[in-house]
Amino acid sequence: MQKKLERLQSSSDIRGIAVQFEDREVTLNRETAALLAQGYISHISKRLGKNPEDMRVSLGVDSRVTGEKLKCAFAEVLMDAGMEVYDFGLATTPSMFMSTVFENYKCDSAVMFTASHLPFYYNGIKFFTDKGGFENEDIKEITEKAIELSEKQAKKHIQKGKINRTSILKDYSEFLVNKIREGVNSSKNYEKPLEGMRIIVDAGNGSGGFFAKEVLEVLGADTTGSAFLNPDGNFPNHIPNPEDQTAINFLKKSVTENNADLGIIFDTDVDRAACVDKAGNEINRNRLIALTSAIVLDEFPGSTIVTDSVTSDELHEFIIKSGGKHFRYQRGYKNVINKALELNRQGIQCHLAIETSGHAAFKENKFLDDGAYLTAKILIKLAKLNEEGKNIEDLLEGYKEPEESKEIRLRITADSRHEYIDKLMKDIETHSKKTENWKQVKENYEGIRVNCTYKEGKGWFLLRSSLHEPIICINIESNFQNGTDLITKEVTDILKNYKEIEMSGL
Question: What is the secondary structure of 256-282 as a DSSP string?
């Protein structure tokens, strides 16, 4: 049991195998969920300084087939402790956070059962207070307490709590609708500022289907062409991931065939999003960051934009030319959010933290990474541009994409992988000092980043350790054809000296 519980900890949340699939061992089931609930009660009571019987906790699930049984096991333990439980059923991760903020709920904490974009046989748990999501240390404390309890007979409390079964998606939809109405502030049609526009939603059979009917159609948009709005935890159509090329290609096709003004795609629990413009161009990764930065910098000139480490040089130049400042930080949505919070505490104006995966968090929205709120901000701008006879692409004037980009992932078999990677980093650093066309980027907060200059053009690579696996990741971009191959060869020549790196990924 101890090993099962230890394997469930994944940075700032819980993730595990919830459905028997091939040779994968189930690690997240009713039993482990109940133990984690005990660990959670211990942690949240201490953290908030409240007795369990004085606390109100909300629970929600995405569309995964195992969500309900895990939620029920968790809820039983909370009620045994005397807590008041709000069971919201199908929900999104951002809406669950808002249950700690909305006046009609004001929950002390929220718990969401989701594994984001991972395959159907996974599930997981995310935790919130009104201060934001839990950190790695919080998850560690919960799992350690669960391990401790697994070794003894868990005691049931005499006092029973109560359960309230309702939905938060209606409240959350109203919140988004009001945000868009107020943001557009149309003198022509305040109530339906999206009237005359066709906007397509691909929810990937996750929790995001509500956005089409409860938000877009209420605001007057035509949603013809929207797909996979019904929740289905088997994800029969495509992986619910805005970064998945199959999913993006389907949306591009839908937008062009239906002559839509915009296409939107969410991940399973709607904390991430991506878009496709009316011409069928993908607005994702660096391009999505550029668009969102342009929107923010129009509202807050001079703001710092915090991104993750793999963003392009072209994006950096675009942010600077748009009047902003760019802080390139570590990968991981919690890392960029925490850095944005830190900068604001230091008096440095920062209104956006955004990762290339589609996690976007705005200062005005409590730095919550919310795909639906990101989409709302884009729709507000789109509606305003539409009234001016312009489109979303006009905001990206001057933005350039790198000519080539790729990511290489190589497995490390060394026992002490961190020490092994540290040695590799030092070798890369030494090599960059000796190589005329290599220059190490000093302002870098993850791995080692090197700018490469050739007669044909420029490029760069970032060598870093994976957040969760024994893998070296190498992100490479260039502004000329075959540039990434050239950089790959130069890096590979160094990697060949390391026998415990599997080179088959090249």
Answer: HHTT-SEEEEE-TTSS-EEEEETT--E
